[in-house]
Amino acid sequence: MNLVIMGPPGVGKGTQSHLILEKRKLIHISTGDILRMAIRSGSDLGKKVQAVMNSGDLVSDDLMMELIKDRLSQDDVQNGWLLDGFPRTPKQAEGLVEILDGIGIGIDAILVLRAPAEEIIRRLAGRITCRACNEVMNLIGLGGVSPVFCPFCGESKDPKRSKPALYQRADDKEETVRHRLEVFRKKTLPAAWILEDRYPLHEIDGNGRPGEVTQRIESVL
Ligand SMILES: [Zn+2]
User: Does 97 lie in the same domain as 163?
Assistant: First the structure.
């Protein structure tokens, strides 16, 4: 079974991906993993990636396509995969269709996790992280009060930098979350609609407990 999972930040994509992978014994294919694997392999493609990374540039769409094609052709993924975090743009979606046609395989289901923007902002904007132990916690779960001491490790200050231990990551700030949601809506959703022309697409309601969302996914697979 070949699956693609898409969703805005904070919708629970990571959790659901993990559960699908465990249950169906699929190979997880994410762009981050692909880049790391390519570099580690020392192949010509890997050397290209390393050069781009060293120069501080972003990996171009063309190079990413080569990497995806290479990854999807390897032996270990022939029994099924879950593609996560790709495609992010309509151009990448068109490229992916071309690659799959070239290899002669398809996608069994595209899972698009959705949740209202305000719900995602509420979830993410409530998150705080501990600099001392890296635990992530939610102010909502902590009753909405901002604690001075980390409930996990007990630190109130980062031992290394004497800053407060608990802080909100830049990625979780409301303004950043709103921007990432807009990028998802304007670029990634159109990519999903391009794939939908060729493969079955299911919009999944991402609200509720992880187990409820998993059931919704299972009911369409
Ligand atoms: Zn802590």
Answer: no
Contacts of range 121-128, beta carbons closer than 8 Å, 24 or more positions apart: 121/10, 121/174, 121/177, 121/178, 121/181, 123/10, 124/9, 124/10, 124/171, 124/172, 124/177, 125/168, 125/172, 125/173, 125/174, 125/177, 127/168, 127/169, 127/172, 128/166, 128/167, 128/168, 128/172
The enclosing H or E element of 84 equals strand 81-84
pLDDT at position 68: 94
Does residue 5 sit in helix, strand or coil? strand
Whether residues 109 and 137 share a domain: the answer is no
Low-confidence ranges of the chain (pLDDT < 50): none
Q: Assess whether 180 carries a catalytic annotation.
A: yes
CA of 54 to the centre of ligand 1 (A): 33
Q: Same domain, yes or no, for 186 and 161?
A: no
Provide the residue range defining the domain that includes 25: 2-116+175-220
pTM score: 0.85
Say whether 157 is catalytic: no
Residue 20 and residue 95 in one domain: yes
- In the set 13, 71, 123, 216, the catalytic residue is 13
The one catalytic residue in 88, 114, 187, 198 is 88
Q: How far is the CA of 149 from the centre of ligand 1 (A)?
A: 8
Query: Which pLDDT does position 144 carry in this prediction?
Result: 65
Instruction: Say whether both 162 and 181 belong to one domain.
Output: no
